[in-house]
Design brief:
mainly alpha; Rossmann fold; 7 helices
Length: 147
């Protein structure tokens, strides 16, 4: 979904799963590792936002402090911030999609998803998108959101 938003808006796309793979041969998804990945992503983002280019940050951002950090950094660059939560209400749909995933940068499975969901700090979300439908549904939603 983040890739689709980046393509629709012409924004640069930064994905923590890709950055994690570049930094760690065998990721553990520990809190320390997660923070190192977020630090590196924000270092990369700083170079792009300093040029006034829009960015899409593809990450769980389960901690509100990390979302606040992003908001502050991006606002300092004079750009607008929109926090989009992509949600699927049915955990069975999530499990089926994760099990069917092949060749993806992320190898986090259903157990990691459940752990992240349990620790997700709500609040400060600008838009919630239901991603339980088809790719066509998602395409329409993105087009409407970013017209």
């Amino acid at each position: 979904m983040a890739r689709m938003i980046a393509e629709a808006t012409g924004a640069a796309h930064f994905r923590t799963d890709v950055i994690r793979r570049q930094m760690f041969e065998e990721p553990t998804y520990s809190e320390v590792e997660m923070q190192a990945v977020y630090d590196e992503m924000m270092r990369r983002v700083a170079g792009v936002t300093g040029e006034g280019k829009s960015v899409v940050l593809d990450a769980t951002f389960k901690l509100r402090a990390n979302r606040d950090w992003v908001r502050e950094m991006v606002r300092e660059s004079g750009l607008e911030v929109m926090v989009v939560l992509v949600d699927i209400a049915d955990d069975e749909v999530v499990q089926k999609r994760l099990d069917a995933r092949e060749g993806d940068a992320s190898d986090a499975g259903f157990e990691h998803y459940l752990a992240t969901k349990a620790k997700f700090e709500n609040g400060d979300i600008d838009v919630v998108i239901d991603n339980s439908g088809t790719i066509e549904d998602l395409t329409v939603t993105i087009a409407e959101l970013f017209e």
